[in-house]
Structure to design on (409 residues):
């Protein structure tokens, strides 16, 4: 698990350094440079979210926004924006390398000055969703929620303890336990427990933030007879195919919760031995496809199924949903509006579907931290084809959509 985290951080920093060099040496920002930048940032943002690197994810999102609003500018403002963008890339590299790196407030202020007030991203420095289950987060006050956000932005882990103390010794046991926690981190809130008061026992929950490693927190919990029922540091990558699917489902469930959707996830996987590089590719592909399905395909309630199977010398990935399907008229209209195709171009049904893989294509009118930039599916296609694979999409109105990816094993 930690090997993949380190690999992600190392490769992300290397890709950002290469991106910086390309931008510094380019006489003009070509469409290719812009697409490469979007793909790099989009992948870093999604993976950082999954690993709980909230500061890195938030900064990558801000840089995407800065890149999108600077398109087609050819003046002094564009030069200033480019300088700020490159500075942000440098900060993102530092953020990935240093878990507790704090992005200067002055940088966020300059970013906001360059982003139009109508942009949803004007709150990027203030409002980032925490990696905490809604069952805990919804019970917090505004001040406590801000404490959680600040803790996540500073790369601290969030824990929730369930505690049962006997009524007779409650005061002493609570004081001792809180002192042990306070010496290691910050107590955010005390929440009602499922057991409440019964049979001479008082039960409650404690939400806690700390930079300490999980074993140390586990030792404190055991000494205080408490059970850790949530640990954000466990949001890590697994080194086998079933583990990858479990991680993707966890991310999908969290994304659905943020969007107020109820989505059931089903997975199936053959017993497959994959190299770390192939697992990493599968992870990136699924991350984008599941995000896309949660945000675009399922409107309120639905199902997403992920299948991973070995066929001959190939690896076959299928991501399907039972959502609204891809509306071809909407797809073509969006492509025309973004000047990706001409209005009078005649396309087959499959050619219309394939428009979703074009760079900068999106049917979203509002950009969010989840989607809307038209980068996700373009990044998937690029990564799959670079690895020598293929990707195909099929869809029926009102029946759902199926993405099938074949990769050489």
């Amino acid at each position: 698990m930690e090997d993949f985290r380190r690999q992600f951080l190392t490769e992300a920093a290397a890709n950002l350094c290469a991106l910086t060099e390309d931008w510094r040496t380019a006489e003009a920002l070509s469409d290719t440079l812009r697409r490469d930048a979007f793909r790099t940032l989009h992948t870093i943002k999604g993976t950082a979210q999954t690993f709980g690197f909230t500061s890195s994810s938030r900064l990558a999102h801000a840089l995407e926004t800065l890149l999108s609003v600077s398109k087609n500018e050819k003046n002094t403002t564009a030069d200033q924006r480019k300088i700020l963008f490159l500075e942000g890339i440098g900060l993102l590299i530092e953020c990935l390398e240093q878990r507790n790196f704090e992005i200067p407030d002055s940088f966020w202020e300059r970013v906001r000055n360059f982003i139009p007030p109508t942009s949803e991203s004007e709150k990027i420095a203030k409002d980032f969703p925490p990696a905490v289950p809604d069952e805990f987060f919804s019970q917090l006050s505004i001040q406590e929620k801000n404490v959680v956000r600040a803790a996540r932005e500073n790369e601290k882990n969030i824990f929730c303890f369930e505690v049962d103390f006997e009524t007779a010794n409650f005061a002493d046991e609570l004081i001792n336990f809180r002192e042990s926690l306070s010496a290691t981190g910050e107590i955010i809130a005390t929440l009602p427990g499922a057991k409440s008061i019964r049979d001479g026992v008082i039960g409650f929950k404690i939400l806690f933030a700390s930079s300490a490693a999980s074993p140390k927190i586990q030792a404190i919990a055991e000494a205080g007879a408490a059970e850790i029922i949530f640990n954000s540091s466990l949001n890590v990558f697994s080194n086998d195919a079933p583990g990858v699917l479990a991680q993707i489902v966890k991310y999908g469930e969290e994304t659905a919760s943020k969007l107020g959707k109820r989505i059931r996830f089903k997975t199936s996987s053959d017993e497959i031995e994959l190299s770390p590089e192939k697992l990493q590719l599968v992870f990136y592909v699924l991350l984008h496809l599941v995000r896309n399905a949660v945000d675009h395909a399922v409107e309120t309630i639905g199902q997403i199924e992920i299948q991973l199977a070995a066929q001959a010398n190939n690896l076959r990935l299928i991501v399907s949903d039972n959502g609204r399907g891809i509306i071809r008229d909407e797809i073509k209209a969006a492509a025309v509006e973004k000047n990706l195709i001409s209005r009078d171009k005649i396309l087959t049904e499959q050619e219309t579907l394939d428009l979703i893989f074009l760079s900068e294509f999106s049917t979203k009118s509002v950009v969010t931290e989840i989607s809307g930039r038209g980068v996700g599916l373009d990044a998937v296609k690029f990564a799959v084809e670079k690895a020598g694979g293929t990707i195909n999409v099929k869809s029926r109105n009102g029946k759902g959509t199926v993405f099938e990816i074949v990769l050489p094993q």
Q: What stands out?
A: The chain has three domains: 2-123, 134-234, 241-408. Strands lie at 157-166, 186-198, 201-210, 226-231, 262-269, 301-311, 314-321, 390-396, 400-408. The two ends are 22 Å apart (CA to CA).
